[in-house]
């Protein structure tokens, strides 16, 4: 099966966020004709949204009644795949993409009784959803389950060939519920919360990063002896040898480091924002490599490092993901910065 970019305005063939294209077929004839969206559950999984939100959105946009019958998603009338795909683009722009960085790794969060927000896991920005759309009221009545103790969905987490995710899918099934009927209050409960069987779809990476996200809000006291680094000459020499791999010519890490150095040629204050730096990391597909932290340790800071660490704490924490290897890589980059590039300042 081929996949398309979630944001179809982005024509980059290496765009990491993918989804399957809408597949539909027409059933019945005359006044009873219906369009079945055969892979709506897979599309919803890639977008980190309950299928009920998508089918309800189609109903509003196409002016047609919608139904969910035994895991089959139906729209009254004849609608081809191109029409449904164009309508899905509207859903993605309004209810999936971050309003700041246009990244699809977002969650819908209900604040208070009737305020919906998009929480972006990429840039950290929180943006408001458009309350004028009819789907807004439906989501308020049927909010998604975003509890930290439960695995949640993220763009491309369960799409073959998709990119890395921050969490995984929590979707479920509803039986014979008419989306436009009086049973809509059960839609989110049956269609989202009862996804125990879908836990098997969680991949190891999603589980690891989901645990990291759950721990970000906790304040952890780290003892000095737990942060100890072997500073013997042998250990420093060994780490220096490991860092030699960073000097390989014409690789992605050279390109990334040279880009940062070029942008901050006159001052570290001229560095790109953390959002721009993260986008560049995604473009180069080096977010899962410890060497990325080595590069950042060498180029993000200068003599004013004490005051420069905190503004970049969010970016560094996201990349490290509580992984010891990534932490050591950052320390190695800092060690190289102090020992080789700024020896007179130490």
From TrEMBL:
Family annotation (SMART domains): eIF2B_5 (SM00653)
Annotated GO MF terms: eukaryotic initiation factor eIF2 binding; GDP-dissociation inhibitor activity; GTP binding; translation initiation factor activity
One GO cellular component term: cytosol
Biological process, per Gene Ontology: formation of cytoplasmic translation initiation complex
Keyword check for Nucleotide-binding: yes
Residues of the W2 domain: 246-346
Gene3D superfamilies, A to Z: 1.25.40.180, 2.20.25.350, 3.30.30.170
Compositional bias ranges of the Low complexity kind: 171-195
Matches recorded under InterPro entries: ARM-type_fold, IF2/IF5, Transl_init_fac_IF2/IF5_dom, Transl_init_fac_IF2/IF5_N, Transl_init_fac_IF2/IF5_Zn-bd, W2_domain
UniProt keyword Glycoprotein, yes or no: no
Keywords attached to this entry: GTP-binding, Initiation factor, Nucleotide-binding, Protein biosynthesis
Pfam families with a match to the protein in the record: eIF-5_eIF-2B (PF01873)
Stretches for region Disordered: 168-199
Highest taxon above the source species: Eukaryota
Family membership: Belongs to the eIF-2-beta/eIF-5 family.
Listed name of the protein: Eukaryotic translation initiation factor eIF-5, putative
């Amino acid at each position: 099966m081929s996949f398309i970019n979630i944001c179809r305005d982005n024509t980059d063939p290496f765009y990491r966020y993918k989804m399957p294209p809408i597949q539909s077929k027409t059933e019945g004839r005359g006044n009873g004709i219906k369009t079945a969206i055969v892979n709506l559950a897979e599309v919803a999984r890639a977008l980190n949204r309950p299928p009920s939100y998508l089918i309800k959105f189609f109903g509003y946009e196409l002016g047609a009644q919608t139904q969910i019958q035994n895991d089959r998603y139906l729209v009254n009338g004849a609608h081809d795949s191109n029409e449904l795909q164009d309508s899905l683009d509207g859903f993605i722009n309004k209810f999936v993409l971050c309003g700041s960085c246009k990244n699809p790794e977002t969650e819908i969060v209900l604040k208070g009784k009737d305020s919906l927000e998009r929480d972006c896991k990429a840039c950290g920005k929180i943006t408001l959803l458009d309350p004028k759309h009819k789907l807004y009221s439906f989501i308020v009545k049927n909010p998604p389950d975003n509890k930290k103790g439960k695995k949640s969905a993220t763009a491309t987490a369960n799409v073959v060939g998709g990119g890395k995710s921050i969490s995984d899918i929590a979707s479920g099934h509803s039986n014979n519920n008419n989306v436009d009927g009086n049973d809509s209050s059960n839609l989110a409960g049956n269609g989202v919360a009862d996804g125990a069987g879908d836990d098997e779809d969680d991949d190891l990476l999603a589980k690891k990063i989901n645990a990291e996200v759950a721990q970000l809000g906790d304040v952890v006291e780290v003892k000095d002896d737990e942060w100890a680094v072997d500073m013997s000459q042998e250990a420093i020499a060994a780490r220096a040898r490991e860092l030699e791999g960073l000097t390989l010519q014409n690789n992605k890490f050279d390109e990334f480091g040279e880009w940062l150095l070029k942008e901050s040629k006159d001052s570290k204050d001229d560095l790109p924002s953390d959002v721009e730096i993260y986008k560049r990391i995604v473009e180069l597909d080096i977010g899962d490599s410890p060497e990325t932290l080595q590069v950042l340790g060498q180029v993000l800071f200068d003599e004013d490092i004490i005051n420069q660490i905190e503004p970049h704490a969010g970016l560094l924490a996201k990349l490290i993901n509580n992984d010891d290897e990534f932490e050591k890589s950052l320390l190695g980059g800092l060690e190289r910065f102090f020992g080789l590039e700024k020896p007179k300042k130490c």
